[in-house]
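User: quick one - fold this with magnesium ion bound?
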Amino acid sequence: MIEILSRTELGRAKEAGALVANILHALKGRATVGTNLLDIDRWAKSMILEAGAVSCYVDYAPSFGRGPFGHYICTGVNDAVLHGLPTDYELADGDLLTLDLAVVKDGIAADSAISFIVGESKPPESVAMIEATERALRAGIAAARPGARIGDLSYAIGSVLSEAGYPVNTEFGGHGIGSTMHQDPHVPNMGRPGRGYKLRPGLLLALEPWVMADTAQLVTDADGWTLRSATGCRTAHSEHTIAITNDGAEILTLPTLVS
Ligand code: MG
Ligand code: MG
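Assistant: Sure. Structure tokens for the protein plus magnesium ion:
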């Protein structure tokens, strides 16, 4: 299903997007050396509930998981890149942490992910990987406008990731979003320009380039959720929810509160 939002719904989408971004920004500020991933999950829970929003994750039970996710945020450390189930782990200096959050506020969902390095050490390969996903995300957003096709966005994203030297996995990528978190169209992180669904104003997309340093192959933890690089290499992931507007695209998941 592909949803086209009304002007009123778009207003709600902006509120949902700002909420997701503000929560991620606050959690990034609190995620320091020694922070437990389960505490990050608890903080996310209280911020979501306090805002009167609904988690997209707690009861999420797609075919690939082992029952409902049961947590409020995805936390991926180092080789964990997607669907990271929060565990009883304390962050160490130099860890590469990915936080991925989606909520529904007043009936509309927003979805965003950030990767960053915890503590003082800044391993250059990790910094480069994070920057590549952020650059690819910006390229995908720049290609998004009415009349553009999904393949144009995929090509823009994939070109940046490939030129930066990373293998690209096309099993998991971006997606339409609206009254629910995951909708059509799928937005692979690699594609051919001029192909696929033609974008229209009012369409919401979550674009999410992610990479693993030296492989495109994933392995799944015994919990059925956390996806890691098959080689144990580090990984990074950047995601924004955007709205297609009359003349381009607007990023909905930028923080509006400075804390
Ligand atoms: Mg996400
Ligand atoms: Mg997403």
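One thing worth noting: Residues 7-30 form the longest helix (24 residues).
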